[in-house]
Amino acid sequence: MEFAVMPDYLYGASVRINDKWLGIVEDDRPLLFRVRDTGPFTLLVELAPLRTDLTGDVIAVPFARVIKIQDGEIVPPDVETDDALHIRKSGSGFQLHFVYPKVEVLGQGLETLMMPLQTETADFDHDGRLDVAQTFATNLRGHVRLKSAKGNILLQEVYPDNALQIEAADLTRDGRPDLLIFWRGAHDEPFLHLYDGADGSLSTYPGFTGMRRTGLADVLLENKVQTGFREVVKLYRYLPVPYESAQFQLMRTETKILQLAADEEDTVEAFLAAIAVEDRQGAELYLAKGVRLPDLSWYAHEMHSAKDGVATASIFQWIVPGYYDRELWLELELVRQPDKVSVWKIGAVKMRVHGN
Q1: 259 DSSP assignment
Q2: Which of 43, 113, 151, 211 is most buried, judging by how many CB atoms fall within 10 Å of its CB?
Q3: What is the DSSP letter of 54?
Q4: 250-275 pLDDT per residue, tens
């Protein structure tokens, strides 16, 4: 099995594999090594930064991770992974991408723990007096603090999103205000935390990016996905179910074309991005007449070229989400069929041998 430790272009790395120093990764030169591809095998990968952070706001921390292999295949980890090490199957080899864990230098950059970014007031604990919810941010994290009118801490949470948002609204339609916290996880996936002051519980619901107030104090939750070319917003109503998890009723879907895909590259980008955000209906807008959407999905992509009616791109599919993916190459044929969303359309999508 051939591995390549890929450069990160920011900190560089001194690399050790199974307690042996392998070398240095910097600039654009990967560091290659091989291991056997039969039987069980364990890799201990240790990386240490060569440079400090230029901003001075954070400190990159050396780290070590274990990769288990069985007969030339990566074994899914037994524990929940973080974003530090990311394995990619590319062609016949494997790439190791890394992101250093970081600790914050307090008092630097975005540090605002003494100055709230957002404030919402409402009677969250239902005692007839106004309580205060506030958000704060550091370089890496967002903080939410809810204080009662007496000054008691009702809620204090830390999130991996320093751009989180809070709202005070009667989402549950029980006549009492709720605290809604919208935040994103490590892989940019959206979540809603719903604080119910009646019992102090905090419920988690994935997929919601915000809320919208409608007539008669009604509140709908938004699930918004957006590319550079199209926006799709699904609006849901919260439906409480006694003694069970809440349900969400889809009320309507709103779509908007944000810009025309004016050339071949735009068309391919719009098509690939739509599938990456799971907007398959949007992806169909960029297909030529009579062409069916391929039975493929991916979470990210990279354009290589688009000219003379032919485009090439890489797509990336998770094998183990957040830890191990694979790279596939596509060739796309384009034809000129102007309409309100694009000038060009995709006439065929073909798989390519990697790198050819």
Answers
A1: S
A2: 211
A3: T
A4: 999 999 999 999 999 999 999 999 99
